[in-house]
Amino acid sequence: MNRLKKILSGEILQNEFLKKNIKFLIFIFLLFFCFVILEAIGDFKVAKIQKINSEIAELRENYVYVSSELMQLSLMNNVQKEIEDKNMGLEIISKPPLILQIKNNETDKKKK
Questions:
Q1: Which of helix, strand or coil describes residue 88?
Q2: pTM for this structure?
């Protein structure tokens, strides 16, 4: 009780030990204050990183879903079915296309 009375009355500030070490005590207080601030900043950054990681996971899931849908849509059977459903008038060719070669006398002479 006596110590509390000294602290509240201000007698503790008149103590020689406190007078000699006031700079050191202020330094310790500033270090503690910086520690608290840096810890809060670190917690904020960790929360931000976790949020970004969850967004990345969600985007990866969306990418896998969309790429599988695209793969299904680009299959030959599905493309053929879509063309038939929309009545585009396109047909699948059974023979490969013909390659036309034109022989020109001038180009033959230049090659020789």
A1: coil
A2: 0.51
